[in-house]
Amino acid sequence: MLEPIVKKILSTRVYDVAIESPLDEAPNLSARLGNRVLLKREDLQPVFSYKLRGSYNKIVQLPEAQRARGVVAASAGNHAQGVALAARRLGIRAHIVMGRNTPDIKIRAVRQLGARVVLHGDAYDEASAHARELADREGYEFVHPFDDIDVIAGQGTVGMEIINQHGGQLHAVVVPVGGGGLIAGIGAYVKYLKPDIRVIGVEAEGSACLAAAMAAGRRVRLPAKTLDLFADGASVAQVGKEPFRIARRCVDEVITVSTDELCGAIKDIFDDTRSIAEPAGALGVAGAKKYVDASGISGQELVAVVSGANVNFDRLRHISERAELGEKREAIMAVTIPERPGSFRKFCRVIGKRSITEFNYRYSDPRRANVYVGVQIGAGDSRQQLAAALETAGYDFTDMTENEVAKLHVRHMVGGRTADAGPELLYRFEFPERPGALLKFLLGLGSRWNITLFHYRNHGAAWGRVLAGFHAGPGDRQDLNRFLDKIGYRYVEETDNPAYEMFLR
After folding, report:
1. Is residue 307 annotated as a catalytic residue, yes or no?
2. Catalytic site residue 51?
3. Active site residue: 49, 55, 258, 307, which one?
4. Are 51 and 152 in contact (CB under 8 A)?
């Protein structure tokens, strides 16, 4: 059953446009996992993803009459760029249907490759339906992103390269899954030549269409409203018919990963390559980490496919914030502390030498305060140990590490104070960012001045930045400034700042 697709893989012409992407070792990740991890760098392709392979292999085989009519595809991402570049190389007119809500940067990227962009609908299904209408009406060839045997064969050249480049004994190849074209092609080639190598698929938790199909023994359509939007390059409601027919014979297991785990994997890839994968492109690494953790294997060799790097720059802030959680290196706690001078100091002593990554607090009650705190979890430490320390000290607390509302919204919404809060002076501080710097700052404040507002977030910069309010009036300003001078950190009073007046008073 696998022989026909393997023959197609061996006869492809993808190297007219694609490169044989390198198989690079990930030394930091390998050391942490206790296994040798190799990255198949499809993010280095001319359009920064593997999609070029399948698109070109499909289009290059079209007869001359069809080439003259042109091709059409529906995509707002990697497939669109793959089709556009393949068509330009072959001198064929390409039409790409995108939703009207597609970011301008993606529209420009496709147009720069010579394709005509057609904006239609708001979702992929609407764009795809319109692309098929154009194909029927105008005679264009519809190039499917994954449910086409020639597209699958083109993607299968990734598996061929892995086997040729490695040449030794591999334990597993870990592959991102969207519609299934990539894992079907890789799985067919790998299992045909070396059936003892495990082929592992990885999906985002909200788009696990292959996992659902494997469990049901048939293709399952996921509700569109529940689809994952973070790993948008692999957000597919139903695995393709042809990919599933092949994958059910070649895939050993399917792993699902969370948004936080994907962000952690993007950071891992960056640490080892200084390249930034898109969320869907990091699925393989996230899955490899989860597989090693669940299976307990050590001393083995695994290949994780890094499938793409078309990430929007404005998403990097979100990825950076969530990466530590994905690596299980940060815990988020909501802790209730007494509202009295010295409470911060006592609380920080319980945190101990752990680095604080975020601290949000706003006075709201004369008896108690709720603190939103992020704490870095180092080697030999855990969320459970932190929780035990808080419990022993008598604090009421809630672990918010898995709370999506807290992580996405509440952390940015610590708001106004009550009417009985009394007078307040607001200051902005800067200090050299190093482990323990925030704790030193808090301990330096002592217990003389009651803190009414506090915000800090570690952003990996050279300077730490804190916004703090103190229970003090204009008559206290001189004494408070002398006190702050002794602490030694740079500061600026912001009591008259209009943002403070409008949103925090």
Report:
1. yes
2. yes
3. 307
4. no
